[in-house]
Design brief:
binds flavin-adenine dinucleotide; single chain; globular; Butyryl-CoA Dehydrogenase, subunit A, domain 2; 18 helices; 7-stranded mixed sheet; two-stranded antiparallel ribbon
């Protein structure tokens, strides 16, 4: 099947990247760069790009056209279950998707994009993830981790060439932060940069891994710390550098066998590159603040990816339960099944509320470096829901779903890393609590209800928990308590967003069901939080811990 696509549809003039580490079961997996040959790349591009690209449609017809194309490619011309259990993506599919210009939603109007309007980008991500979560992540990486940082912090020179390349030549870009020894504590990264006055360029070296689009992206944003001296000591601030892959210097040492997200290549990269001065992002204050802005904006836009995924989980579950007969009646009629379906609908509604929040509060030019509570709440809560919804669909579908060629099985492994990347949820929940406690300390308030009922992100939701929240917080609580509290606070923030969506005229039954679901979650999280006993770890657990010894024979 793969071969047929290649033989019939590949434009042979284009670069084809064969990734040696990814030859499996006799199939050659090919990641395909849509960039035309390097020679063509350097030719000047016509300025009237929008005419040929037809990206000036109104957003609804733009999204409808995109959805139709995805449906045609994933359902009509192919079987998505077969397609998505093979690593990579057939080149003609990627080419036809990119011809719809989904990434133009992230590009400002001055550079011939659709205007980088947040609601447009989120609608595109939602349409992508309804069809395929990895496809949406691919778009999200390009948009939130490359194009938006470029739009906000890139030099005029970098923006004017690179945006055009994305529009015309369907380029791809990713972000490398994580290193094998520094993941969650990324600020201690060991990749370093040095400026050379003679060449007006930066030399950057290090080792990065797990960057989405490894071996595939045409451009990379590479993060590094400046060398303080010749002894290799690194400074604290972080620099972001745009690297054109065609200049060489990124050596893929290994491709990973990622558990899910088969469409996307991951691996380990040795970095030894030179980047012109014009291709360093220019922070408004410090590099760390710029990094916070980039990461918070990205987290705030997770609902683009999650809403489509959650809608798909909900539709698949409804469809399955209505047609599956168990014990002589439709699965749909069992009370426990209804509970699961109601939760799926609530997750979709709450995720929609987050999309609404981000679309109405976070334009591209809004600095999000201080929006930590909103960003961390959205990212951690909605990714928990993504995985919970996938688990629930698999439970409802039963054994038939426990296959890579079934959406339920794939959804479970595809959604899992969303709880790990861009901030591990455990850490984000802790940070939500720490931010709230910091604000409480500053305002000299110790009572949680008094603070939350006056805080813009919880003022209405807190009203539903007057009794539960009516206690003085312990400012020195243990880390596990901070995480437990953060889980509850993140859901209070999500509930507030759902209340606001309700006020906008969104389906009131969906809103009221979602409020019931999230309220019960919050109550149970606070009851865990107030449970005083804390289990410890028994280090020498081997002592008397084999049950067989105690069986009386
Ligand atoms: C599918 C996927 C895609 C990714 N895409 C990218 C990408 O495009 N670009 C990129 O740069 N990186 C990417 N990453 C890397 C990702 O950002 C890191 O995996 C993440 O930051 C966690 O780092 P780590 O894996 O080294 O885990 P570690 O830092 O070792 O943490 C592992 C776990 O330890 C616990 N933990 C860690 N620190 C603490 C703490 N302080 N308190 C309590 N518990 C803690 C948490 O449970 C955490 O999940 C991706 C990862 C995956 C799986």
């Amino acid at each position: 099947m793969f071969k047929t696509h290649l033989n019939t549809d590949v434009n042979k003039k284009r670069d084809v990247l064969v990734i040696p580490g990814m030859i499996k079961c006799g199939k050659i997996v090919i990641f395909y760069s849509l960039r035309q040959s390097t020679k063509v790349k350097n030719k000047p591009l016509s300025l009237d790009i929008t005419k040929t690209l037809n990206i000036k449609r109104d957003i609804q017809s733009f999204i409808d056209h995109y959805k139709d194309k995805l449906n045609e490619l994933f359902s009509e011309r192919n079987d998505e279950n077969e397609l998505l259990m093979t690593r990579g993506l057939p080149p003609y599919i990627l080419r036809e998707i990119m011809e719809c210009n989904p990434l133009s939603t992230f590009i400002p109007e001055d550079y011939d994009g659709r205007g980088a309007i947040t609601s447009e980008a989120l609608s595109m991500l939602e349409a992508s993830s309804y069809q395929s979560l990895p496809l949406s992540l691919m778009m999200g990486i390009n948009g939130a981790l490359f194009l938006q940082p470029l739009a906000n912090y890139g030099s005029e020179e970098a923006k004017s060439t690179i945006f055009k390349e994305f529009l015309r030549r369907k380029n791809m870009g990713g972000l490398m932060i994580t290193e094998p020894d520094f993941g969650s504590d990324a600020l201690r990264m060991q990749t370093g940069f040095k400026y050379h006055e003679d060449t007006k360029s930066y030399e950057i070296d290090g080792l990065k891994h797990w960057a989405g689009l490894t071996g595939w992206a045409d451009y990379w944003l590479i993060t590094a710390r400046g060398y303080k001296n010749d002894e290799g000591e690194l400074g604290r601030d972080i620099g972001f550098f745009i690297h054109d892959s065609s200049n060489g210097g990124i050596d893929v040492k290994e491709y990973y066998q990622n558990l899910g997200l088969y469409m996307l290549p991951y691996g380990k990269n040795k970095i030894d590159i030179e980047v012109p001065e014009s291709h360093r992002l220019e922070p408004k204050t410090t590099g760390v603040t710029m990094m916070l802005d980039i990461l918070h904006r990205s987290r705030l836009q997770f609902p683009g990816m999650s809403t489509g995924h959650l809608k798909r989980m909900m539709d698949e579950a409804l469809d399955h339960c209505k047609t599956r007969i168990v014990g002589g009646m439709s699965l749909f009629n069992y009370d426990q099944v209804k509970e699961r379906l109601a939760k799926l609908q609530s997750y979709f509604t709450i995720s929609s509320a987050m999309s609404y929040f981000t679309s109405t509060n976070v334009p591209l030019n809004q600095n999000t470096s201080r929006m930590d509570v909103a960003a961390n709440s959205i990212k951690s809560v909605v990714t928990d829901y993504m995985h919970e919804a996938s688990q629930s669909l698999l439970q409802l579908v039963g054994a038939k779903g426990y296959r890579l060629d079934h959406i339920a099985g794939r959804a479970m492994v595809d959604s899992r890393p969303f709880q790990i990347f861009e901030g591990s949820n455990d850490i984000l929940y802790q940070q939500i609590s720490e931010s709230i406690l910091k604000m409480m300390r500053k305002s000299k308030e110790t009572n949680l209800y008094n603070f939350l009922s006056d805080y813009s992100l919880t003022e209405n939701s807190a009203e539903h928990f007057e009794e539960t929240l009516n206690f003085d917080v312990d400012f020195k609580m243990a880390q596990r308590k901070l995480v437990q509290l953060g889980r509850a606070l993140g859901r209070l923030v999500s509930m507030e967003m759902t209340i606001k969506l309700g006020e906008s005229g969104f389906n009131s039954d969906m809103i009221s069901n979602s409020l019931k679901v999230v309220k019960s979650e919050i109550e149970s999280l606070f009851s865990t939080y107030s449970f005083a006993e804390t289990p410890a770890i028994i280090e020498d657990y081997d002592d008397s811990s084999s049950w067989l010894k105690f069986v009386n024979q």
